[in-house]
Amino acid sequence: MEYEKLSNGERVPVIGLGTWSIGGGMSANRSHDGQMLDLLRAALDMGYRHFDTAEMYGDGHTEELLGQAIKGLDREKVFITTKVSPSNLRYAGVINALEGSLRRLDTSYIDLYLIHWPSRSIPLEESFRALNRAVEQGKVRRLGVSNFSLGELEQSISLSVTPIITNQVPYSLTNRRYVRNGGLQYCQENGVLLTAYSPLKGGVLGSPIVREIAQHHSATPAQVALNWLVRQPKVITIPQSTDPGHLRDNLEAVGLELEAEEVERLDQLA
Fold first, then answer.
1. Which domains are delineated in the chain?
2. Which of 2, 127, 144, 199 is 20 to 30 A from 224, alpha carbon to alpha carbon?
3. Residues tagged active-site
4. How far is residue 40's CA from residue 19's CA, in Å, rounded to a whole number?
5. Mind giving me the DSSP string for 13-76?
6. Does an H or E element contain 91, and which?
7. Distance from C-alpha of 245 to C-alpha of 49, rounded to nearest angstrom
C-alpha cells in the first residue's frame, strides 16, 4: 500500500474503501448483514486499512457493521473516517452525533471526522467550537470537510485548532470540477489532501481510451482510473464496491505503471 503524508508526518493510505450502501442507503438494511460483514473482513484481509463511512450511511447501521468488522484488531492499524450530517452542525448536535458514531463503531476515537456537507443555516464558527472541543478531548484525532467550496475550506482552516487534512469531493477522469475551480491546486499548495469520491462514475469505465490503456497493461479500467488519481500529489481516493474481486482490483491499482503518453491522454480526457 502507498500512503500520502499528512502535515504532521503521519500517513494515510491512498486507496481506502467507501462504505456507502454497506448496511443500507439512507435507511438501515439488515437483510444482508452477514454478507456485508464478510465483505468488510475480506477487505481487511486484502490489506485495506482506510475505511470511509458516515452517520448518514444506513442511518448509522454502516458504522455498526464496520465496528463489528474491526473488533479484536489493533485499533491503531485501522484508519476510520466518518462524517457528521449537516442537520447536526449545531454545537450540541455535533457533540451528540460524535458520541453516536463512537458508540456504533465501538471505538474511543475517530481518526478523521468530517463535516459531510456545509450547512446553509448553521455558522461554521459554531460547528468548529464543537469539533475543536472533540479534538481537545481526544475523541477525534484529525478534522476535515467534505463537499466544501474553496472559500468554505479556507474558512474551515482558519477556525480549526488542528490542521484540516482533507476536503472530500467528487473527482474523477470525467469530473474535473475541483480542478477548474482551483480546489485541487489549493490543496496541493497548502498540504491538504483531496479525497476523491465517486472516482469510477460518470462513464469512466466505458471510456474507449481508458479501456484501451487497461488492455495494454492487462489491467481493469477501474485500475487505470484509480491509478491516474493517486499518482497526483495530495490525492487519495475511496472507491466503493460490494464485489470482493473489484475490491482486490481497486487496491492493486497503485501498482500499475502508466506510460507518460498514456497519462497525457488521460489528462486530456475530460
1. 3-203+232-256 (3.20.20.100)
2. 144
3. 57
4. 9
5. ESB-EE-TBTTBSSSB--TTHHHHHHHHHHHHHHT--EEE--TTGGGGHHHHHHHHHHTTS-GG
6. helix 91-105
7. 17
* SS3 (DSSP) at 87: helix
How far apart, in whole angstroms, are the C-alpha atoms of residue 97 and residue 158?
23
In this predicted structure, what is the pLDDT of residue 50?
97
- Is the pTM for the entire model greater than 0.90? yes
| Other Cβ atoms closer than 10 A to 136 | 11
Cα separations in angstroms, 42 against 38, 45, 123, 143, 227: 6, 5, 41, 28, 22
pLDDT tens for residues 99-123? 999 999 999 999 999 999 999 999 9
- 190-215 pLDDT, tens digit per residue, is 999 999 999 999 999 999 999 999 99
Bridge partners (DSSP) listed for residue 169: 196
- For the record, the C-alpha cell of 255 comes out as 501498482
Q: Is the confidence at residue 1, as pLDDT, over 80?
A: no
One-letter identity of residue 74: D
Task: Pull the grid cell for residue 8.
Answer: 504532521
pLDDT tens, position by position, 71-110: 999 999 999 999 999 999 999 999 999 999 999 999 999 9
Cβ atoms of 222 and 228 closer than 8 Å: no
